[in-house]
Amino acid sequence: MISSSTTLIxxxxxxxxxxxxxxxxxxxxxxxxxxxxxxxxxRRKSVAADYFISxxxxxxxxxxxxxxDKSGSRVGAWPFAAGHLILVSGTNKIAPTLGDALRRVHExxxxxxxxxAKRAYGISSKIGKCVILAxxxxxxxxxxxxxxxxxGY
Length: 153
What we know:
Elements (H helix, E strand, L loop, with lengths): L5 H5 L15 H7 L3 H11 L4 E5 L2 E3 L4 E5 L7 H5 L2 E7 L3 E2 L2 H24 L7 E5 L8 E6 L6
Parallel strand pairs: 1-4, 2-5, 4-7
Antiparallel strand pairs: 2-3, 3-6
């Protein structure tokens, strides 16, 4: 599953041909489903994908990684459900403390996401679900890729 992410779009990941990589792109399957109930069920199941690729909202220098979204479809995989969690972030999202990281989400990332959601969907966004990833216990489950650029918001 590839979650919706401005960072992933900016690095060109949304242009990757999933057929050539021999994976089933669950994000495209979900977007192609017209029945709202079926689409919701597909989103729910997608958080348990073998590999879940996502951007992040903030990273504290103490190691915690923060992500929030409206429904939980992006952050639901983070705590446990995804077999492997691959997170991509620009270094612009690094904050000194966890408090600063959470403030970054509320005062910087969310307002920009709200504008994007209004443009894209005609409705406001909100911070509905937040995950703070820290102290992962399953060796090799989480991979964080830091790109030394300003990516996403």
